[in-house]
Description:
It is a single chain. With 94 residues, the protein is an all-beta fold. Helix content is 0%, strand content 57%. It has strands at residues 10-15, 21-27, 32-38, 44-55, 65-78, 84-91. A 6-stranded antiparallel beta sheet has the order 1-2-3-4-5-6, with no helix packed on it. It starts with 9 loop residues before the first strand and ends with a strand. The mean pLDDT is 86.
Amino acid sequence: MEGYDIYSIAYGFEYDKKEKLIASVIASAAAREYTYVYDKADNIIKRNGKGTRWVYADENDTEGKLVMVDLEVNDYKWDKSGNLLSDTFLYSGE
């Protein structure tokens, strides 16, 4: 699948034995890994996203290390009929 990026974008999805989405991965120039939390009605109530960041030991470290860090969170609210009421997006600890 091609996206609107200079790099190809690849997607991956992981499901549990009940076929419920538990993890997803987007691999491109800005990689993301997501995990999901469900309520008792099987609605997704939270999506936690990790993204890549370069970290350096100190100012003399010229190579650094690419790591996955907590980057974004979606909180979802549903009514009793299963209709999505809100999707609150927080990026990098907002």
